[in-house]
Structure formats: C-alpha cells, structure tokens
Give the backbone structure.
Amino acid sequence: MSVGNDEKLVTWPGPTSGSWRDWRLGSLIAVWVVAIAVVAAVKPVHLSEIALYGPVLFLSLALASEAATKATRVSAIVLGIASYLPLSNSWFPRIWRDLILRVPQHPFMVVLLPEVVTVTVVMALLLRSGALRKVLNAVPIPLRCGGILMLAGALVSSVASGSPSKAAANALMSVALPVAIFFAVRSLVHQTDNSARILLLVGLGALLPLLCGMVAIVQAFGVPTSVAALLSLKMNLNFKGDFGVATFGNSTHMVDFVMVVCPALTVLATLTGVSNLGRAISGTVAALGVITLLLMFSRSAIIVSILWLAGLIIYTFRQRNRPGLPITLLLVILGVVLSPAGRSVYGSLATAVNRMVLEHTATSNTFSGSQTPPRSQVVPEGGTPSIENPGPSNLGQTPTSSPSAQPIQRTRTEQASQATRPTQGAQPNSSLTSSTVDGSDVSLEQRLESLKYSRLLIERYGWLGAGYGQYASLDPIYTSPHNLLAQVWVEGGLLSFVGLLIVVAYMAWRTLTLFLSPQRSITKDLEFAGALSSLVFLFQGVIAGTNLALNGTGVWGGILGIMVAVGVGARLSNS
C-alpha cells in the first residue's frame, strides 16, 4: 500500500472518545496513582520513573486503540512488544527479571521473560494461522540466509561451548529473540499505517529511559555548565546517582539505545503525513537522544550521528519533507563540538578518560594469560553489567571459565604494554583537571589492543564459536573487542559471523537504495526510517562495539529486529 507524502497515517483519539472513557483505562489510572503514592513512601528514588509511566502508557494505549476495531490478536501483541521493549529495564520489568534469573539460578529461566513469552505466543499464532509461511516468503533472500546462518551458528556454538545451557540462554536473547521479533513485526508492516504506529510506540517507550536518565543526571550532578561539572559527570556517571538504575546500566548501553532508536524517530518527525502529536513525540525522543550523546562523550557515536544527520537532511530536501529538526540537531552537535569552549571541554574529558582507563587497568594488570580468568562481579541489583563489570556470560550469575573457553597467553608486545600500566592497588589520581596524561589517546590504544587480542581468540574459536556471552571470560582485561563483528565471530563462530556480515551488507544496500530512489511516498519514508536506524546501530557496533542483549535485557537486539522489519518493506506473498 503506497501512501502519498501528505496523507495522514496515524490519528489519535480525542479526550472525549470512547477509548479515554473506558472503565479499564480508569482502573489503570487508579493503579498508577496508588503506585505513585506507594513508591513516594517506600522508594522515593523511583518516583520520577513511576510518575512518567502514566503518560507513556496512556499515550501507548490511545495509539494502539486507534486500530482496535481492526486489530487481530497477533497485531495487538506485536504493538505491545513495540512499546514494551524500551521499558524492559524499567522498575517493574526489572523486578520480575531479577526474580526469575536468580530464583532459581538457572540460565533457561529467561524463557519466562515477558518479551520471550509474548514473541513465542505471536509465533505460535502465526504458525497456527498459516501466516508464517507468507511472512517468510516476504523476507528478502539475503536476510533469510543471514538469519538462518546466525541461528545455526548460535546452535553450533552453544553445543561446542563448555557451558551449553548458559551459551544457549544468551543465544536465545542475542539471536533468536531479535529474529522472532523481526518476523512478528514483519506480519504487520505490509500496511503502512502499522509501520508508523510501531515506530511511534517504540518512541513512546523510549521516552521513559531518556527522560528518567536526564532526571537522574540533574538530581546527581545538577545542570552541567562548566568544564569541571562535565568532567565530574563523565567520570562519575556510572558510580554516582541512579542513572544506571533508571536506564540500561551504564552510559555505553544508553548510547547504544540512542543509536538504534533516534534515527528512525528523527525521520518520523520530518513527515507531514504523521500527526502533530506524533511528530512532537518523535522530535522529543530525537532531541533527548542528541543531548544524551553529548553528555555521554561518545566520540564514535557523535561522529556517526553527524554523518547520518547530514545524510537525512539531504534526503529530507529531496523528499520535500520538513528538514527543520535534523538541521537543528546537526547544528547543535557541531556547535557544541567545534566551538572553542566545546573543544576545551572535550579535550579535558579525553584526558580524564585516558586517566580513568589507566586507573581501571591497574585492577587487572596482574592477570596472566596462563591463569584462570578472575571471576566477574555479581551484577548489582537493579542494574546491568558495564564494560568494567561484565556479566552477560550467564545472565545474572557469577561467570566462571569453562574448560573449553580459556584465555590465550598474550604476546610479548601485549605483556610489555601491560607492564607499562600502573601496578595493582595504585590509588586513583584525584586531580581530574590535569591537562595531560602522556600525550596519547589511551582509550583508543586499548581499544586497538582489545581488537588485536580478538584475532587470537578468532584463531582458536573462530570455526565453531566459544558460545554467546562467553567473551568476557575469554578476555577479562578488556571484556570486549569493541567490534560487533569480531565479538559475534568469537562467540558464534564462522556461521554467525557470515550471517551478521550479510545482514550488515544488505541493510547498507537497502538504505542506499532508498536514499537514491526518486520515488516520493510515506511508505518509502517509513522504510528509510527503519533501514537508517538499523544501519546506524550496526555501523556503530562495527566501529565501537555494542550489545544485542545483556543480562537478560534484549532491548538492543529486539529494537534492531523491529527496525529491520520496518526497513525491508516488502509485501506479503499470497503463496
């Protein structure tokens, strides 16, 4: 169904419509008010999060009810998945996840996670109705091959792993869940209005972690207006205040979330065929995402954002949409980064980050490649592991090395590099405003070292894979190669690597094809939104690393599945 640029796709029920006067909505409002009162008395730190739950849920219900008369059980559940995924680390889902992952402590308790249960129900309904074959036939052959290879690699690497159940549980969250969500969303996006509705529901859900993250930053650090304030925010964000609890564990995971959500929502905010409220929500998500990137000081994410915003501006002018938002966002980023004050701030932050990396390495520099890797910390309640505190290897338990997954003796060059770092027990330098460390970019150097070490792991595990979630046990010093392709190759083996490479190449081709196409329609614009978000997230993962799932939270891979499904845009087959 091709829709013209100016035709309205999504309308919202007014305050006097039946959906707002429904007794069930009144009951939900009553429960929300009671929850606010209880949290204010018992756990006031979560008050802002619970207060924001209400508007997000009400708007989501209003948007979903707009299609209630023609919605099937499958579409209703899929719409729920789209709005739930960004909320999967909020307070109520987090309580449930922590409970089922720790009592009892068995990795396959992940099958009780809400997103896993709902996607399983959708797949069962599609299979029963015979629609699954139509959905499968509508998937382009490269994506079909890539998905099959990734699933096969996940299965083979889980069997070959020293901890098959743990590896399989991680493979379920990292590979099987995104693929299943892709098929679930694929069953709906043959209708253009459903594509817009799904993207808006993702945006509504994304408002909660983005707004809660901003509230947590202001509560802990105030509004940063000076170099010292920004330094303090960057260096202490993961350790002070409730930013990790309110978002996805640490700043790196929040950056990944922004990169998979904001490009599509920025495109949506430029479309004249979307209602004013829909564009306002999309624009708010995009603006909060850019502010988050600037506060997180993710250099790779900022560079990638400049590139995709520039490309989107060109696309928007060609499509005769509204370019105001992407132009504003790009000017804000360039104004902050390129201004004299901005260069001074980010130069000081780079120096402070170098020192932080050096000081962190002091805690692990005594590790020898011939030793059993040290145990990681148990993930704190209410949070997810950070790069410094890896925890994905067994979904909430304390990971240990398996007989078939041992670290590799590092080369003399790497050992010499380790010897130049501070000794274990060295005290952190309290002066964060020093202008230099040693004149080099330590963070970049260590990322390159971690990538070099991943090559040794690929030589050992590259054929069958060490098992999903096992990388941190294989490299306890860096815990990640900071490259999604390398990490998938080590964990999922050659099959998963080739499958992911096919997916990345296809989404790059799809995005470029839509970008160059002279056709003007909202259908094409929505497909471009999904394809752009998919490519931006995957590209960020290739140059800086990212997670598809972590500690029972499948938000990144799940939303990636949504964006790929929206971006492919093929019609369902009748065969």
Notes: The mean pLDDT is 77. DSSP finds 23 helices and no strands in the chain. Residues 18-341+483-568 form one domain. Residues 4 and 522 are 6 Å apart (CA to CA).
